[in-house]
Specification:
The chain is 50% helix and 9% strand. It has 14 helices and 8 strands. It has a 4-stranded parallel beta sheet. The protein has a 4-stranded parallel beta sheet with strand order 6-5-7-8, with helices on both faces.
């Protein structure tokens, strides 16, 4: 069984339980083992621009804990992903920095050699598990559902550090959405920031950025915006709900976590996916699921075509 050390970070356990529950359910269905390391601490992201050494040590300690157990790390949060990747990159680039960090880690009997791979959930699904393997587990697929994929900032930049996908024209997330049968639409503001970094500093500007992006997604024909980062989803869900109330708007573009979208296609129970925990209801998404009879008919038709093709090839 493929195994990862699951790095939840701080935000998901405190504010977005449905992301954890849906991720665990999806990965279990796909045969991926998740190991919880209780000693994990904050990735250091909040201190990144305040105390660089503390940020680096926070991330490095997590990596050392995973390395001690010979496990690669899977993150659900893209901020955590970016922080852990940054720390790993810096220590591999600067031997003296790595040595300095390890002097502190030695006090706990830890040491980081740089043998750990850091994966975001999406990259693990796409590159380690694979599109075809996911297809093989499908219980049903969506029909006519249009999704606006939101990549987020920390998964794509700085590209030489994170190595997630092409930062200018990424396709990884779109492919993962389309494996569910949904259509990943083109939309002008696809790669723009969700506005979350400004929340708590300039709420009005944060809301403006969020609303501008969601309006563009809606205008481009999306039924839902899809995120795979807790900060982005909270912005599109909880903050959008505030925007709708404060600005007297009534045309939301609901946000669905990718693990909820994929989980429905895998036939996972809606309670395990936490659908009811989203602030803006997404119950209507299930109306886009194909009926089992329709799927069976499609499968039978595909098999008949293959049989016919094989017969014609034999005759030739």
């Amino acid at each position: 069984m493929m195994e990862f050390a699951l790095f939840l970070g701080c935000t998901i356990p405190a504010r977005l339980n449905q992301y954890e529950s849906s991720s665990r359910a999806v990965l279990e269905k796909l045969g991926v083992g998740l190991i919880d390391i209780r000693e994990f601490n904050c990735c250091g992201y909040p201190l990144r621009n305040i105390d660089f050494k503390v940020f680096l040590l926070s991330s490095a300690r997590n990596l050392a804990l995973a390395e001690k157990k010979n496990l690669n790390v899977m993150t659900l949060c893209k901020c955590c992903y970016g922080s852990l990747k940054k720390a790993d990159y810096l220590m591999k680039e600067d031997a003296s920095l790595k040595k300095e960090v390890n002097v502190t880690l030695e006090k706990e009997g830890l040491k980081y050699e740089g043998r750990v791979e850091i994966k975001h959930l999406l990259s693990a699904l796409h590159k380690d598990i694979g599109i075809e393997a996911i297809k093989g587990k499908m219980a049903t697929t969506f029909k006519g559902l249009k999704i606006a994929t939101h990549y987020g900032c920390h998964a794509l930049r700085p590209s030489q550090v994170v190595g997630f996908d092409n930062p200018v024209a990424p396709t990884l997330f779109d492919q993962l959405v389309e494996v569910t049968g949904a259509e990943s639409i083109d939309w002008p503001m696809k790669l723009e920031c969700c506005g979350a970094p400004l929340w708590g500093i300039n709420d009005r500007l944060s809301m403006d950025l969020t609303l501008k992006k969601l309006t563009d997604g809606k205008k481009s024909g999306a039924d839902y915006v899809c995120a795979a980062c807790p900060y982005c989803h909270i912005q599109f869900d909880k903050v959008q709900k505030m925007i709708l109330s404060q600005r007297n708007l009534n045309h939301p573009l609901p946000s669905v976590l990718y693990t909820q979208l994929l989980g429905l296609s895998l036939g996972i129970d809606r309670k395990a996916l936490g659908l009811e925990m989203n602030e803006i209801p997404i119950s209507g998404i299930e109306e886009f699921l194909k009926k089992e009879t329709e799927l069976a008919e499609e499968k039978e038709l595909a098999e008949q075509k293959e049989t016919k093709k094989g017969t014609e090839s034999t005759r030739q």
